[in-house]
Amino acid sequence: MKRQRKRQNKSTTGASPTNSDGDASHDSTCNGDQLSAFRFETNSSHSEHKPALCITGLGNPGSRYLHTRHNVGFRLVDALASKLHVKLKRQLFSPYDYARFEPPRYPAAEEADNQNARFSEFILIRPRTFMNRSGAVISHVLRRYGPSIRFVIAVDNMDIPAGEARLKMRGGTAGHNGLKSIVHHLDRDFWPLYIGVGRPAAGGEVISHVLGEPDAAEEKLYDGIIEAIADRLMSLVIFDFTKVQQDINSIDVRVK
Questions:
Q1: 3-class DSSP string for the chain
Q2: Residue 209 designated active-site
Q3: Identified catalytic residue from 49, 67, 70, 176
Q4: Most confident of 39-43, 147-151, 172-176, 245-249
Q5: Domains along the sequence of the chain with CATH
């Protein structure tokens, strides 16, 4: 079903790119270590004709932006690659880094009652474009992995406090220029994953906030939420979307 590209989620955030190097793009329970221990079914028919799941994290490339709040999407992809024991790599002239994890069979689990929510493989994508041009990778990904692929798009969100996240059923921009670029190039619904970075302190500027690096206490919140999200996203192998969505949306690493 074609998306109506003018449809956007309401947002109160706002910012624009600051220079040609980096984009600040806001407009005004399944443990990963257990994955290798899953018991796989011997009947391969379950994995036939299943779509791949593409988890794409948005951010700005380069060491200058590595630890900024705007790059939490990149950090999530890196965390997933580490948990799945795969390395992100790049083909010559490709506008993105990628990695694949392909289980030989779907794991047998009584809880996996919605087979339509299970996927043949995970594909991790980290665009090499800057944030506001993230959508440029979409056509490349579709050509390489096929039109049936499903997307989770992970981005920062200032309307959510650091230490929390929201996984949504349908894609919208939420005033985020990276997502606007995705919507411009992707003519279907996707699952947006908003990772909270909170708002700047009173009197602070949005651009400085998202392109700034957090202090040690805030950094621990990002480490915690990214770790928790990565574990739960991998459980899409066996659990349906609603369960994973509920698990992710209930995370609050600020609560001890």
A1: CCCCCCCCCCCCCCCCCCCCCCCCCECCCCCHHHHHHCCECCCHHHHCCCCCEEEEECCCCCHHHCCCHHHHHHHHHHHHHHHHCCCCECCCCCCEEEEEECCCCCECCCCCCCHHHCCCCEEEEEECCCHHHHHHHHHHHHHHHCCCCEEEEEEEECCCCCCCEEECCCCCCCCEHHHHHHHHHCCCCCEEEEEECCCCCCCCCHHHHHCCCCCHHHHHHHHHHHHHHHHHHHHHHCCCHHHHHHHHHCCCCCCC
A2: no
A3: 70
A4: 245-249
A5: 50-249 (3.40.50.1470)
